[in-house]
Design brief:
Two copies of one chain form a homodimer. The first copy, chain A, has 13 helices and eleven strands. Chain A is α/β, with parallel strands linked by helices. Chain A is elongated. Strand 2 of chain A pairs antiparallel with strand 2 of chain B, so a sheet runs across the interface. Chain A binds a DNA duplex through helix 2 and helix 4.
Chain lengths: 335, 335
DNA sequence: GTGAAAGCGCTAACAA
DNA sequence: TTGTTAGCGCTTTCAC
């Protein structure tokens, strides 16, 4: 049940069958029809391995993620997938498995096996060894979310996003603004949290506002972490605590909201909260946020590497969109 | 930069190099060392296509999901991935892309391309055509979550899970219990919601309790859907509304909780809520639930197909664990 | 518009 | 322990 069988049944040569099956020009229409029909009848299933060997193209791209079970990554993978499917490419997933997974082996063993024609890296920072090993394969590469030295990057401008958030809060009259961010031990690009925090600090400084160290809280980029950070941040008396909290992710913002509720704080009366992401849950609870579209970012990244695989020069990728979505959790500070 | 180069450099034959590289026995240790070193120096990268062609084994398994950005699927993929990586297999992801994605093409074009040695299907029901096309490839297959005719299945016993939940509520003294379930249009196995609902109904009937039709609400298996269903369910007066709600997923339970809060209902005083899953968010808000472990299910599924690929007979897979986790959202009904 | 033949990079008998 | 020899199933010149 290879191309050969079809050839013998139709009385054609393997070459012609191959051409017909791939829809190449310069094959008689009748021939194409015939070949297709016979292929169907025989239940022909092409072998990507053979095609890959012959052409050097695997028609597959690798997507490398720190972990999968995170809103951003899952959405981005979905976006990449859409474009790959459209182009007839398969998606092979390389999950680094968080801090626990032994990255090294994953890298060497699989990613370098010529199984894919290109790589999309999600929020990854590679060390020197990893970088050079990957470069070795000469594959087109791009990273989503967070700049990586020497690689093309698609993602929002984190500094600008932070500035937008602060601007919104400032505009409402807030002056006492705290930040919840921190490192995501699950492996998010370390640059992202820093850039958001710096963007926050810069914007505050530009407004002549000082931020006490204790107002730079660590929410570990998770719901539970946000709740914990919020509990600490909001424990003090009304005059001592912030009137607004800017969270570097919606999940943390949701956590802060939970903490506020537990403390009986009215939102947005006594506390305003703004996040980043555009998480579905945020919409449901009315969370104000700077929404980004990881799926779109995934699509853009996929198109970029696909183009490169097809020989295009690695064009410049513009920053991804991020839009302020004002909902119910931000308002004018009380008093 | 293939096996050939290494052969010429070392003065050995391709065969020996191949053996050495794969760590086969009956190769002199010195030879192995030499080959390995030269391979490293040359920056040798094996070609999975060539190996696959020669052996007929791709060292990859496909994972088919309705959508990726769902708690259960993401976790399960992670579990599958762990085992695959351990076995040196790659994971190729087939995302059906929900109701929008054109399933047909996805199926025929990719999954059948001999790119993988086995398939793990997540919560999928296949129609006849799909089934027969897949069978055609003679690949080991298994489905996670929800029974599928003619295929091995790993997952919790949904009927038993529902009975456990109802039992918990009954034990607390509840008699007026509503159910939030419904179809997940994103493509969850249609059987799962039905089995949970039937399990609920059966358990209620066994306790001599009747459930009004309006207390079988549709939460679309999402947070927002749960909130909407909850809003309707809880809108009536205290004597008319249920004292407890059993949700077929934690996400919906979270939504119901939100609805309850918006209506000012005390939990668990005026309303008890129990879910299914063991979602992280549930833990943070203190949601009582029947926890399952999709990652473990993924691991089990992966091991099962891997064993089959290695020639083992398709053994029986026992039902996955599901454990009642009592937290703060369920309690004795007021009054 | 179609065919013949070489070869992609590796593995697997079978010898030696 | 190592080498020789065929392929695996497809694509791709180069002829016809």
């Amino acid at each position: 049940m290879g191309i050969q069988e079809i050839a013998t049944v139709t009385g054609l040569s393997k070459a012609t069958v191959s051409r017909a099956l791939r829809g190449l020009p310069s094959v008689a229409e009748t021939t194409v029809d015939h070949v297709r029909r016979v292929a169907d009848e025989l239940g022909y299933v092409p072998s990507s391995a053979a095609a890959g060997l012959a052409t050097g193209r695997q028609r597959a791209v690798g997507v490398v993620v720190p972990v999968i079970d995170r809103w951003f990554y899952a959405k981005a993978i979905g976006g990449v997938d859409v474009e790959l499917r459209r182009a007839g490419y398969d998606l092979v997933l390389y999950n680094l498995g968080g801090p626990g997974g032994d990255r090294d082996r994953a890298f060497r063993r699989s990613m370098l096996r010529h199984r894919v024609d290109a790589l999309v890296l999600l929020s990854l920072v590679l060390d020197e060894t990893e970088r050079s090993e990957l470069e070795l394969t000469r594959h087109p590469m791009i990273v989503i979310g967070g700049p990586a030295p020497g690689l093309r990057n698609v993602g929002v401008d984190d500094v600008a996003v932070a500035a937008t958030a602060v601007g919104h809060l400032l505009g409402l009259g807030h002056r006492r603004i705290a930040y919840v961010g921190g490192q995501d031990e699950a492996g998010m690009n370390v640059a992202v949290p820093f850039r958001r925090r710096d963007g926050f600090l810069d914007a505050m400084a530009a407004a002549g506002l000082e931020v006490p160290r204790s107002w730079l809280a660590d929410g570990r980029f998770s719901f539970a972490g946000g709740a914990a950070a919020g509990a600490v941040l909001l424990a003090e008396s009304a005059s001592e605590r912030p009137t607004a909290v800017f969270c570097a992710s919606d999940e943390m913002a949701l956590g802060v909201l939970l903490a506020a509720r537990r403390l009986g704080l009215r939102v947005p009366g006594e506390l305003s909260v703004i996040g980043i992401d555009g998480h579905e849950y945020g919409a449901a609870v009315g969370l104000t946020t700077i929404a980004q579209d990881p799926e779109a970012q995934g699509r853009v990244a996929a198109r970029a590497v696909l183009a490169e695989v097809d020989g295009a020069r690695p064009g410049v990728v513009p920053p991804a969109a991020a839009t302020l979505v004002v909902r119910g959790t931000t308002g004018v500070p009380a008093g």
